[in-house]
Amino acid sequence: MASLIGSAVKRKEDPRLLTGNGCFTDDMKLPGMVYASFLRSPHAHAKIARLVVDKASQLPGVIAVFTGQDLADKMTSVPAMWFLPGCDLKPKDRPALAVDKVRYAGEAIAVVVAKDRYIAQDALDLIEVDYEVLPAVVQQEKAMQEGSSLLHDDVPNNLALLWKAGDIPDQVFEEAEVVVKERLYNQRVIPNPMETRGAVAQYNPGGGELTLWCTSQNPHIHRLIYANVLGIPETKLRIIAPDVGGGFGAKIATYTEEAVVACIAREVKKPVKWIEERKEHFMATSHGRDEVLEVELAGTKDGKITALRVTNTANLGAYLSTFGAGCPTIDFGLMVTGAYAIPQAAVVTYGVYTNTTPTDAYRGAGKPEATYQIERAIDLFASKIRMDPVEVRRINFVPKESFPFGNAMGVTYDSGNYQLTLDKALELFDYQAFRNEQEEQRKKGKYLGVGFSTYVELCGFGPSAVAGAIGFQGGVWENSTVRVHPRGTVSVFTGTSPHGQGTATTFAQIVAEKLGIPIEDVELVHGDTQSVSMGWGTYGSRATAVGGAAVSIATDRVIEKARRIAAHELETTLDQVEFINGQFTVKGDLTRCRTFQEIAKSANYAWNLPEGVEPSLEGQSFFDPSNFVYPFGTHICVVEVDEHTGEIEIKRYVAVDDVGRVINPLLAEGQVHGGIAQGVGQALWEGAVYTDQGQLMSGTFMDYTMPKARFFPPIESAFTETLSPVNPLGAKGVGETGTTAAPPAVVNAVMDALQPFGIHNLDMPLTPEKVWRAIRSGRDNG
Amino acid sequence: MQLTYAHTFLLPREIVWELIQNEDVLKHSIPGCKSFTQLEDGSYDVEMGLSVGPVKGVFTGHVQMTDHQEPSYYCLKVKGKGAPGEVDAVAHMHLDEAENGVTLNCRMEVVVTGVLASVGQRVMGGVAKLVLGQFFKSADTEMRKLTSQV
């Protein structure tokens, strides 16, 4: 039988989704269901002087209207979940609904419940609000200045956290042969999954049970937080993440709206639905990135990097979001040295409150920013010492003999072979031929450029002890139960809650391969806190490396028990039983065998079990990995810049990724494609723009450019497989490789193209206008 | 956002000075004006239906005219709010002598919030010009009507 692990199995999910038979939150229709709409502040910073809901309450069809005051004794504010120690963190919770003051444009201040969505919307217009407008602070460096308007009275200078790691004496930089210093801006982006957020809540006044269907990447985390917020035991709060249409990190966070919907369902004793509109999504769902990165790199003239220090001034938005404190510190700071053996490194991160939408994890969460600064700094260094950027990378790579490798920030890279992906990518690309062509084309006034990004990222969060040490309020292990039914089909319960990854396929491949049964016989059960005991979320590319590992171990335990039953039935000893391709056989006697299905029946009927073996066939695993995993790779981007219009065309994109064991190359490549699209999106098109008053100017798809398939050439993707030693699958993580690798690959390519114009750095997004201005003025950032 | 607009009336400056601040003229000239009521302090409460591209709604607001330097300048302050957001505008109205009449030069500083800002701003400049154009054209007609009656 051909191996299922490693084969391009088509997604089990697709027939259902493609024929319109998926079940997303908005597909939920419950008898007597009513609808909620939120009134949102038009101001970024204002006192609520007057809030009168009488007219709205009186509109026929309106069931209830709630303000923050009305909910004060019914639910609490929603806290963050990552309380990083040692950084003087001043966490500010999101209020259920703003009460005295609003702190960003789009913050909810009241909620209407009505018979239908239209009436709820109309009622919003009847709510009377008077605001006393306060000065807004939008940009993080300005917000930190003395005398800036304060969001929270007890947070001086709007400084939510100050995190320092490592220390390098100034002398090291003063005495270095070469120093490059640059201020980079990793701009704010808006996640925009295809499905916006939504919630449906149902309360049973008889028993007090509350069920909440919502768009979550981690329903158990929602239960953990919301149980407290709603004052309800975890035993009576059931969270279900049905089909979820993308998340990119934005559906990790425990927002207020979902909890408010649950709270008001309990109040009005009717099922309540709320579906976020796209224009709400732009303002009310967490944004990503928004970090000002000041990087200083010291090295020798012959290309060796000796020290790196980075200051990250991160915009946290108006409140501390769920993982808000961790992204610009741990996720960013521990990875600043990238794939290079840099002996000394230091990071300082300022986390700043501003009158903007709170920021949180977005596909990569800190690692793309870390990769951006090191990969850009390497190119600036290469340019300064007039060395080929590929050569500088080669010289400084962590050598493959050095793994496990402890980087200067104190984390241990599990395994790696950076030279391998670079060599393979160069082979696919034909570097020398490109340089020759570039030279030729320049003579004709055509400007080609190539950019490299040889990234490494930190994924597969675990072990839980580390999570505890860095102040994460939860565990990072995963669990699985593999339950074999009497006829030999298998239900796999997993704490991993997918939102588009195809986990129901990849996990089924693992189980089907191990048990030697058809993949059609394996079904995944996920996303429901009542059917799955626990789960810590699908984020940080941890689904396969941690959740998949739990599935693998639980399956092994099924085999272990089945083998005992088989040995008993075959009247032989355990060590004489072999399990190959779904058959238990006695060594050396192929005629004495039992199929997996036969043992499934025996175990469940329990007519004749060996002594000490309990009925049924089920394996369970709670897997807490010993370390993170560190996928890596080489991305190469080729662009052509039009000197006259500033327009950038991507001519080629080569990606060689090493994500450890690839379970399904089709899905892995899909993840790479999507990640690259989003990464290139950040490099060239995307960007949240606020006015000085905190008004979001890029609040629609007409103002915010999403990447589209037609913007790309075919992506040339390949994998190498350097297995991870920290989980039984040898898997790493593939979900965030593209967003991590692509932005510096693209920007490095554009800078390479613009080299004849004396331009070294432009901030993302590299819009035609920005590039055109820079070419005209011959200056960085125009 | 800054906006400028100019309109030339073929009428004497004194007449334009008086009529451009006349309640009836304003009531009939403000596009989408639903009500226009003078308050005791001389300012006005106004209700108008506005449609800026994709943004539609009824706005209630307050209009005040100050700093009169007859017959050449006054300041118009407008505050309004509606479902799509809030508007806060200060307009400097200069009446300059022109050939056969007077040119009203309007220089306006406008701050908008909410959906008006995030969705409307893109089209705001063009639409504001359109709305102002409609206003001055109607005001011109109203003034002619009134002056021919006098």
UniProtKB/TrEMBL annotation, chain A:
Record domain Aldehyde oxidase/xanthine dehydrogenase a/b hammerhead: where: 19-135
Entry keyword annotation includes Oxidoreductase: yes
Keywords: Molybdenum, Oxidoreductase
GO terms of molecular function: iron ion binding; oxidoreductase activity
Pfam families, alphabetized: Ald_Xan_dh_C, MoCoBD_1, MoCoBD_2
This protein's record includes keyword Oxidoreductase: yes
Cofactor: Mo-molybdopterin cytosine dinucleotide
InterPro entries per record: Ald_Oxase/Xan_DH_a/b, Ald_Oxase/Xan_DH_a/b_sf, Ald_Oxase/xanthine_DH-like, AldOxase/xan_DH_MoCoBD1, AldOxase/xan_DH_MoCoBD2, AldOxase/xan_DH_Mopterin-bd_sf
This protein's name: Xanthine dehydrogenase family protein molybdopterin-binding subunit
Provenance organism: Brevibacillus invocatus
Source lineage: Bacteria, Bacillati, Bacillota, Bacilli, Bacillales
UniProtKB/TrEMBL annotation, chain B:
Organism for this UniProt entry: Brevibacillus invocatus
This protein's name: Carbon monoxide dehydrogenase
Domain of life: Bacteria
A Pfam cross-reference name: COXG
